[in-house]
Amino acid sequence: MSRSTPVVILSTADFDSTVWTNKQHLATRLAEHREVTYVESFGLRRPTLTRADAGRIARRLLQSQETPTERRQVEHRPEVVSPVVVPFHGSHIIRRLNRQLVDRLVVPRLPREYILWSFSPLTYGLEDGANSFVYHSVDLIHHQPHMPSRSIVTAERRAVRRADVVIASSTGVRNHLLEIGAPAVRLWENVADTRLFAAPQPRRRPRAVFAGHLTPTKIDIAALRSVVDAEVDLVVCGPLPEDGTSLPDDIRALLEHPRTEYLGNLPPERLAEVFSECVVGLIPYLTNPYTSGVFPLKVYEYLAAGLSIVTTPLGSLDGTDPALLVRSGSVGFGAAAASAIEEFEEAEAMERRALAASHSWESRTEQALAVLNDLC
Question: Which segments cross the bilayer (predicted)?
Answer without folding.
Answer: none
